[in-house]
Amino acid sequence: MKKDFQIALVGNPNSGKSSLFNALTGLNQKVGNFPGVTVDKKSGFLKIGNGDSVEITDLPGTYSLYPRSEDEQVTFNVLLDTQNASHPDLVLVVADASNLRRNLLFITQIIDLGLPTALIINKMDLAKEQGMDLNLAALSTHLGIPVLATNARKGEGISEVKRLIAERGAGQPLPFYLPSEEVQPILQELTPINGLQPGYRSFIYLCNHDYLQNISDKQHRELDALISKHNINITQLQARETVRRYEQITGLLGSIEKRSTKEVGKSRTEKIDRILLHPVYGYVVFLGILFFIFQSIFSWASWPMEFIETVFNQLGSWGSANLPDAWYTDLLVNGVLAGLGGIIVFVPQIVLLFLFLSLLEETGYMARVSFLMDKLMRKFGLNGKSVVPLIGGYACAVPSIMATRSINSWKERILTIMVLPLMSCSARLPVYTLLIGMTVPEERVLGLFNLQGLVMMAFYLLGFVAAIGSAMVMKWFIKERNSSFFLLEMPIYQFPRWQNVGLTLVDKAKAFVFGAGKVIIVISIILWFMSSFGPGDAFEKLEQQFATELVDGELSPEAENELNKLKLEHSYAGRMGKWMEPGIAPLGFDWKIGISLVTSFAAREVFVGTMATIYSLGSEDFEETTLREKMMADVHPTTGKPLYSTATTFSLMLFYAFAMQCMSTLAITYRETKSWKWPALQFFYMTGLAYLASLLAYQLLS
Ligand code: GDP
Ligand code: MG
């Protein structure tokens, strides 16, 4: 779409930028990334009276023009670099009326930059509830810019904001604070370097040039030289600026703010917090909520997921039956369609997990979760906000990795992403069920517990212990990028707004399908190729061999299964399985398991299907019991002992517990970290861990 006019929404975190953004742009939104970083770029369009469309960008929350996090650096660059693609024609600063003092630090900094600016005082309802009366006209005169009041939650004041945008009504900001006298001469010297007249903009440029992306190394060197020549202590200058600003802000607030003593919203919140932050009940409630979330993504999501699988299976059968019998049909059905199904099937879990997460976030409970769990999780290098994604990992790592976005610290977020796939996700369930059924007898322990169930539980626990343990180890190897100070705010409790929740769900589903989908489709096609083609003329020979058994041009189901089994054995995947055999023999695995390890890179549950093909079971008569019987009857070619001894099955289960066998997880890790480094590390450390654990188990048990 053509951009006639660019607007940037800036402000402190939690001030209501996104709410205002949603109210202004509705469904006309797109999400991308700011160039070169992983920070989300949300922009949307607003049509104004004369037919022009205005592009509005929701910038990451920022406390000041001294950037600390990657998020703040993005905002910093957009505002300071006039060449930046998102550099605005109008800055809308959104401020939280109930927290005006803190918000004004950033507001006055923006004003001193001299960009066309207007101020939106949001959350007016909260300010009123707290008995605060604000004189916005006086504030506007004081700052020299238009000031509007809104309640972005209820949509109040939005039409005034739209009118202001249509009129392109920015004021002439009045300078609020000027850098102290002693830096003026330095700023004079700066003009030839950056072309800026001495002033606040030039001062910020000097202090924070390290964070500016669009200046040359030469300029950086010149600026550094200038700083050391004049022996400037930047930290001190900034501290002085902050103190000075707050003094002025206090004076300003005194003249525009009247307070009465009633504080309704706060007291309701305090009452609720007496329970939800209680040292005992707090945890009880939290556990209950976790249990509920876990149940729902684990069991409720299974209905729509089964439905999606059925639809894709039927589409596949229809395709195989009605399209020409050629390689491209096979590619379409078993490569592309299977890959597509493998993507769409995650959507219900993603939507459900994010439904709960955005409810927790919207109501204000998420901040309490961080507060309750933070101390404990920090011991492992994680964060209070890691808890919900980790538990979600029991259902599926994919939506849970997407849910780590709310973790503010980069390091803690990466750690959470790295260890999350160790949690026993639901795709491991069919593998465990099959293998436990083969080795663990159906007995009762102490006349009460089912032994098979206990073993299953042990594997679930193992996943959790492995995740926490790996985090503890990795915490020493991953460097913190920026020492982000942690400011935990306790928002007041509020009812969620369904429009916002809905937008989040649509966003997340889209981000997954389009972001990770590409990678998943590509890998599916590669895996399809590996299991449908073989080197040389092996496949033709097999076809010829079976030609004699054709009846009316068709094979009997048994012969067909046998042919499929032989084809798999001679395919590239089969070759790889055999090639892997020496490497995996110490774990008790043979080439057949090798093939399954290759194919279940798509997803762990593919193990069962591959085994069914290897033991030549067709999809019609496939049952877990028959597969189990066939596998148990298999004997080792040289020793003549059962192939699936206790040692082998346990080794195999351990392998599935730890190995990174899920292309969707790798794809989403790539999308969320914007680098192949992390998925690659994830793959290697998890597979290494799996190999060691299996080796140990097999060697000890056999
Ligand atoms: P952002 O971090 O600046 O993008 O802020 P959000 O738009 O995500 O809003 C933060 C929280 O404030 C959410 O829980 C919103 O529901 C709430 N909120 C936003 N605007 C208002 C408002 O005008 N009044 C009230 N009471 N709450 C609001
Ligand atoms: Mg936001």
Can you offer a commentary on this structure?
The structure is a single chain. The chain has 702 residues and is α/β, with parallel strands linked by helices. Among the domains are: 161 residues, Rossmann fold; 52 residues, no CATH class; 125 residues, no CATH class. It has 31 helices and 11 strands. The strands form 3 sheets. The chain has a 7-stranded mixed beta sheet with strand order 2-3-4-1-5-6-8, with helices on both faces. Strands 7-9 form a two-stranded antiparallel ribbon. The longest helix has 35 residues. 38% of the residues are buried. The site of guanosine-5'-diphosphate has 19 residues, from helix 1 and helix 4.
Q: Structural class of the secondary elements?
A: alpha/beta
Q: Any guess at the CATH architecture of one domain?
A: 3-Layer(aba) Sandwich
CATH class of one domain: Alpha Beta
* E-strand count: 11
Q: What is the CATH third-level topology name of one domain? A: Rossmann fold
DSSP helix count? 31
Cα end-to-end separation: 66 Å
The helicity comes to: 55-70%
Q: Give the overall pLDDT as a whole number.
A: 85
Attached small molecules: guanosine-5'-diphosphate, magnesium ion
Gross morphology is elongated
Oligomer: single chain
The residue ranges in which pLDDT falls below 50 over 5 or more consecutive positions are none
| The CATH fourth-level homologous superfamily of one domain | P-loop containing nucleotide triphosphate hydrolases
Radius of gyration: 30 Å
Lateral arrangement of strands in the main beta sheet: 2-3-4-1-5-6-8
Largest sheet: 7 strands, mixed
Strand content: 5-15%
